[in-house]
Design brief:
Layout (H helix, E strand, L loop, with lengths): L6 H12 L2 H7 L4 H15 L4 E4 L2 E4 L1 H21 L12 E7 L3 H16 L3 E7 L6 H5 L4 E4 L10 E8 L1 E5 L12 H6 L1 E5 L8 H8 L5 E6 L2 H9 L5 E4 L11 E4 L7 E7 L7 H16 L6 E2 L5
Parallel strand pairs: 3-4, 3-5, 8-9, 11-13
Antiparallel strand pairs: 1-2, 5-12, 6-12, 7-10, 7-11
């Protein structure tokens, strides 16, 4: 069966409303002959005369009257679909957004973000889910609306990205740890027992590369998959952890943080989303809100500020 010409729905709607080929032609900016041809096609498609002559005018058949309500509704719905999006009314917006982040984001930025959302769009729900890897599949599939993190090799080439803030690595130990007093040299730092954070379970990281350049090695006692686990171990032992400063500010409360005595490349934490959401007004509003909250929520640095060697 051939696909029907959906343009005929608009023609039928106008014909039924005007009850005249000439008036319908004028309204649709067509010639009377073109409108007559369109009516002939409608009759062929529906198998019904639709409009029949009565004196000088046309009257609808029972079939046309039956179709009238549905045709009008369909045309209005189609026009609404093709119309540019209306101005976003945050006060009336009802929507749920899923954000995928590593541990630390919710603790540091979640309270301020939720407060702003509640103030501007009380009908919006934020759903935070863990980020076990950098695979862009969930964004591509539509199960994740926004993501934060460092762009990696497994990030989809089509993914949009906007920098949120720059971050640096810091060392973290329990309060009263030997490293919390005195000069923190690269040798003292390397001599301790360390926690390595690796979601992929690797036994080596950027800190090991930096120490190697200084002719030093460290002992990695344990490998964990996230910041919270590393900090829990550091809090209850003499183990040393290394992690991003701003991203883990709230998580590190009560611990001693210090600038590393070796140079590591700073991180750029970015906001990531799929391009199909680029023009979505509500999504654009949320992206702006996350960026603003991250800019304003800069946790203070506690501990030794200057790296020493």
């Amino acid at each position: 069966m051939s696909r029907p010409d959906l343009n005929l729905l608009v023609t039928l709607d106008v014909l039924l409303a005007e009850g005249s080929v000439a008036k319908a032609a004028l309204r649709l900016k067509l010639s009377p002959s073109a409108m007559s041809r369109a009516l002939a096609r409608l009759r062929e498609a529906t198998g019904d005369p639709l409009l029949v002559r009565a004196g000088r005018g046309l009257v609808p058949t029972p079939r046309a009257m039956e179709l009238s309500a549905d045709v009008g509704r369909l045309v209005k719905e189609a026009e609404a679909v093709l119309r540019p999006a209306e101005r976003l009314d945050l006060a009336r917006l009802v929507r749920s957004f899923t954000l995928r982040n590593s541990d630390g984001f919710v603790e540091n930025f979640g309270p301020a973000l939720l407060a702003r959302v509640a103030e501007e769009a009380p009908g919006v729900q934020l759903r935070f889910v863990p980020k076990p890897d950098k695979d862009s599949g969930p964004m591509r599939e539509g199960t994740v609306d926004l993501e934060t993190g460092v762009i990696g090799g497994s990030t989809g080439p089509e993914v949009r990205a906007q920098a949120l803030f720059r971050d640096r690595f810091v060392g973290v130990v329990r309060a009263g740890h030997p490293l919390s007093e005195g000069k923190i040299t690269a040798a003292r730092f390397a001599a301790g027992r360390h926690i390595l954070i690796s979601r992929r379970g690797l036994d080596r990281g950027p800190v090991d590369d930096a120490l190697e350049l200084a002719g030093l090695t460290r002992k990695v006692t344990t490998v964990v998959g996230g910041f919270a686990e590393a900090l829990a171990l550091a809090r209850g032992s003499d183990l040393i952890s290394t992690m991003p400063e701003r991203y883990t500010g709230t998580l590190r409360e009560g611990l001693f943080s210090f600038a590393l005595p070796v140079k590591l490349t700073p991180l750029t934490i970015s906001l990531l989303w799929h391009p199909r959401l680029d023009a979505d007004p509500a999504h654009r509003w949320l992206r702006g809100l996350v960026k603003e909250v991250c800019r304003l929520s800069s946790p203070p640095f506690h501990g030794s500020e200057k790296p020493t060697s």
